[in-house]
Amino acid sequence: MRYAVNIPPFAEPDATVELAVEAERAGWDAVFVWDHVLHDANHPPVINPWVVLGAIAARTERIRLGPCVTPLARRETVTLDRLSGGRLIFGVGLGNPPHEDFAAFGDEADARARAARLDEALEVVTGLWSGEPFSHDGAHFQVDEVQFVPPPLQQPRPPVWIAGTLFHAKPLARAARWDGYVPIKVGRDDIEFATVDDVARVADIVRTQRGTLDGFDIVTNAGPPPHATPADYEAAGATWWMESMGHFPGWFEELRGIVLDGPPA
Question: N or C: which end of the chain has fewer CB within 10 A?
Answer without folding.
Answer: C
